[in-house]
Amino acid sequence: MSHYFENDEELISRLREIKFELNGHQYSFISDNGVFSKNALDRGTEILLETLLPLNLGKKILDLGCGYGPIGLVLAYVKKSHVTMCDINNRALALAQENAKRMGIHEQVAILQSDVYQNIEGKFDSIVSNPPIRAGKKVLTNIYVGAKEHLIDGGSLFVVIRKAQGADSTLNFLQKHYSFVQVLRKKKGYVIIQATMIENDKKGAMHE
Question: Which of 50, 61, 142, 164 has the fewest C-beta atoms under 10 angstroms from its C-beta?
Fold first, then answer.
């Protein structure tokens, strides 16, 4: 069975259009088999975007595990920021490229293949992710702890986790690795968590 956090070159393609509205604006994305939430905007992604759009995320944003692009492309479109978008799934990346062109913001985004932070360079004001829970604990740990190496001092990691899929344990884990961690929102079983990188966190001095 194929997973959206893997590459399956033999998976049959069936393109489809996903439409949704956020803050009064209508969006249209192309999706396909083999990508996360292929038939509709994921509820966690929707709640994450609703929470992030009013915030100051800075000018350099990383969308980690971007899928076909809803988080990174909406943020780039609304915030006028530069967004780096990455995923391990090549089909998802091709869709994200096409969706960026459809939105007219392809010059605002950099879309690249990366296994978590493997091909990510530089530091960001914000890292946002709807993390691939089914990819396993090792991948999730790499996302959460690795963010410290790719955030500016004072930059934040924002994640959405379902309460039923370990939001409380994720919160506890992040509190052991970051000085400042807060729950921004709880809605319909989803929890939005912000973890802010303070320079001492990088050295592990605060909690480890």
Answer: 164
